[in-house]
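## retry 2 of 3
previous attempt timed out at serialization; input unchanged, resubmitting
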Amino acid sequence: MKSKLLTALCLIAVSAITGRAAKDPPGQTVDSGSFSVLVNGQKVASEIFTVQQTTTGSTVGAELKEEGAGDKATQNSTMQLTSAGNLIRYEWHELTPGKTQLELVPSEQFLMERVTNNPGEKPVEQPFLLPSSTVVLDNNFFIHRELLAWRYLAQNCKSEAGKMQCTVSPISFGAIVPQDRSSMRVSLEPVGNEKILVHGTERTLPRFNLKFEGGDWALWLDDQDHYKLVKISIPSEKTEVVRD
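## retry succeeded, writing output
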């Protein structure tokens, strides 16, 4: 269990901590699948995602599609990270109903964000005095919360007798929210195992609380499957995100 988990964590943050590189072949998929986004129990969107190891680190792709008829919103994103979890490049594209696109890249001591509202227009630039190790947490891609949880595990947990043991205390991370053009501090803290329903089946999963200004989310990870994200609850928005 430990070696498999560390392989996954290497893609995001752990190589700098453990001092060894990932050994899996380039292009191996660490996680892929989809999340259903439910508001008041009604499905409103789907997120399809993949996390892959590359020769230089990892690539995380996601696409969000709204449900229902009419002008359904569709957007996608691609994030490239070094083997230490530092940002190489983040891109976001609105496919419908608009054509806005966004790019976030390190530039000396800054993260530079460039937003283009219409094809052919000159992008609007906004610098953030943040390091490339800053966590990207875009509004509409929940797979980014899995990456944050993996980073927490890499920094604050260890395997004992085949089980992950974490220091029960919150860790604070610097984060950037590209679509909001803002940065913030977030904290993640394990609160123990909890019984929850997933697709009508009761499961006991480790819960983590994600807190930030104006937000309080609950995350449940699968400790039997490389700590993949299974479910998110956002009570203030009456929203749940569930792995399909």
